[in-house]
Amino acid sequence: MAPQIERPKTGDALCKDCFFWAFETEIHKTIVGGGLFKRGDLVAVAASGGKDSTVLAYVLKLLNKRHDYGLKLLLLSIDEGITGYRDDSLETVKQNRDEYDMPLKILSYEELYGWTMDAIVKQIGRKNNCTFCGVFRRQALDRGVMMLDVDCLATGHNADDIAETVLMNILRGDIARLQRCTAIVTASEGTIPRCKPLKYTYEKEIVMYAYFKKLTYFSTECVFAPNAYRGHARAFLKDLEKIRPTSIIDIIHSGEQLSVHEGVRLAVRGKCPRCGFLTSQPVCKACTLLEGLNRGLPRLGISKSSIATRAKEEQDRTANKTVLSKDF
């Protein structure tokens, strides 16, 4: 077949079938080379309905069968409560569930924290909304994987995302996070590992793969995203890529090779006394933010809701050890 596609990553001219094979093989090599999974692992895919998580779920299912990884796969989604965005994207996730025959668990901010992002933005405005959402989402994923008792959480972070994070950490002077942000597997004691199978996969190629494979995915940007600081790093990276297409991988490799002084370390993490999740502060960021939101609203008090939520999560976790259904 005559070449139809020029790969953004390498500039190679390939037919569609050869592009599919090259794309999938690179992800397979990343998985094997990084030792991301073990046979028999129960792996949750963080599913948003977007291109990255949709392609990740599709390719993991395909490679699991092609290379006999021996994995059990499921989808984990977080409903932040953003009208006109997350409610629509979750419909796409449900289609993915049916198309890929994977169990799906959806957790909402409202059930975990008593707030939706719409309500948070109404109270605090749009200036710092991404801070609240990012902190709550990270903890919500931790709650979800513990509830489901999985062995690993696979996220759809692609090469562009990681290069952007390297740039952001440099621009903010956050040297301690440079090594962690390029790690393909991240875990702390007492937490379930997270891995990035798409670490070296270009965003443009993910879009091309989803398009030519005719995958169902949600492409609308979050209505609150334009104000995010990451957007500035993304714009800068896109300008670099126009000049030098290998800039994305070059930045990742630079981040991997940066030598951090022995005295520069991330803070030691312990358990938050309120919710029980890991934190480097006396009280975790999620509980601190939640306390600010709940001030003057005692019916949403952190202590009572956290204890009740953790008890329910432990019950669900025990139940899910033996039963995996199409919907949790």
Task: Explain what the structure shows.
The protein is of the alpha/beta class and 328 residues long. The protein folds into 2 domains: 12-159 and 180-226, HUPs (Rossmann fold); 267-318, no CATH class. It is built from 13 helices and 10 strands. The chain has helices spanning 16-34, 51-66, 86-100, 109-113, 117-124, 129-148, 159-172, 178-182, 203-212, 230-243, 247-257, 285-294, 302-320, and strands spanning 5-6, 13-14, 42-46, 72-79, 104-108, 152-154, 185-186, 194-195, 270-271, 278-279. The strands form 3 sheets. The protein has a 6-stranded mixed beta sheet with strand order 5-4-3-6-8-7, with helices on both faces. A two-stranded antiparallel sheet has the order 1-2. The protein has a two-stranded antiparallel ribbon with strand order 9-10. A hairpin with a 6-residue loop joins strand 1 (5-6) and strand 2. Residues 296-308 have low confidence and may be disordered. This is Cytoplasmic tRNA 2-thiolation protein 1. Belongs to the TtcA family. CTU1/NCS6/ATPBD3 subfamily.
